[in-house]
Amino acid sequence: MTNVRLDKPWRDLTAENVARLAGELGVYHLGDAESHVVRIGYAGGRSLFGLRGELQAALAAGEGVRFRTEVTAQYLSRYEELLMVHVADHHGLPIGNAAEARRRIGRLSPG
Amino acid sequence: MDFEMTHEQTLIVEQVRRFVRDEVVPLEADLDPDASRLEPEDHARLVAMTREMGLYGLGIPPEFGGPDVDIVTQTLIAIETSQHRAGLYSPCFGAFGGAGLAQLYEANDDQKQRYLFPTLRGEKRGFFGLTEPSGGSDPARAIRTKAVRDGDDWVINGSKIFISGADVADFGIVFARTDASKGRGGVTCFIVDADMPGFHVRRVVHTLRSGHYGTELQFEDVRVPHANVLGEVNQGFTIANDRLTRQRIPYAAGCLGAAIRAQAMSIEYAKQRETFGAALSSRQAIQWMVVDNEIDIRTARWATLAAASKAQRGEPFRAEAAMAKLLASEGASRVVDRAIQIHGGYGVTKDFPFERWYREMRIRRIGEGPSEVQRIVMARELFDQALY
Asked: Which pTM value belongs to this model?
């Protein structure tokens, strides 16, 4: 069973660290200097070079200073789950996911 | 039995086919290959089109505002609406609407006012809570969630699993045991508001489908007023069973649609692709795969329309629906598998829809009752008795 929360260690969002990532499908957190999640994202079937490509784009855009990833083929449902967990823990979406508020995010009591 | 379409059915099928080809498929080019929903603006635009076509709300009885489309025609439409990448589980991304929770049509007037009509207006969403961790194939006996009467309320304790949409629902139709001494005669159906204290969505259940998920639910002393009993106390399984039987026909039709699309793509590809100086279509190995596909498709189509015809005539169709579900889910699985083989390496990439259909078809052989249960349903009828 997957751990509900993505609680792997944070890594600095640098070109060197991102270059080490494989081009796999998965989900990721972008965090600020205090390790607060600023955006939840996923590398899906149309992501060029998977997680590496997504985080290279985040680095280029200056989004966040840290990141952590999880490789999974179930990237869409895991993405939804991470949004739900964040809402359950923080009573709102990360600032970088504000556009998702146009739809209903699931309610979760992860315990 | 003749399944030649009427003139009106032909026109409707052609109209829906154009809608899928011209409006739905192009949108998928910009979506993730596993996506199951559209941007809200695109969804609203498609819904406006199906309303204009007079086909929105298929499955909703006409007396509740649905279009007056018979079951056979609905089945023909379902075969068409599933002919795109997401079509197996999200036909046309829900642009034709849904029947909602069919059990609510049997609700009393008060319940219809509070749940059915708001659902049909799109103001409320519901979930169907039947399967439990203790088993899904024999729900009448596997249900361990208990409901105990306490004054004007019932108090529910237990859990459910693989429940779609519960995390975003306003209410659910929940089946709970109210008499431990009886099997299927001891289950009651409740309408449970999702904001009741003690109702928890504990986790997302990830499956082969990335774009959709089930949930695990927990009920901790959830109080439900007696006014929210749907139907009669201890008669809940009848409600569940009727739904399970009816659902098998569109479920089979969805499998068929994806299989038909996979077959068409395979034939087209085999004509164009050359190996060792000749088109794949000239190779007997490929020809036989395509022929076997066609046999699976036509067999399942006949069985599915036969079940729909019996349902439309008001005759018992339980065994026919089971046969249709079995033939369509197993046959379509083989068709998609052969389509991958014909497409070679491309077949397993996300550039094509086959790998998604392959994963989702595997679930179709289990969802809405696994193949083994369909055989039990048919065997019961052949032996004219309850075998278990």
From this structure: 0.93
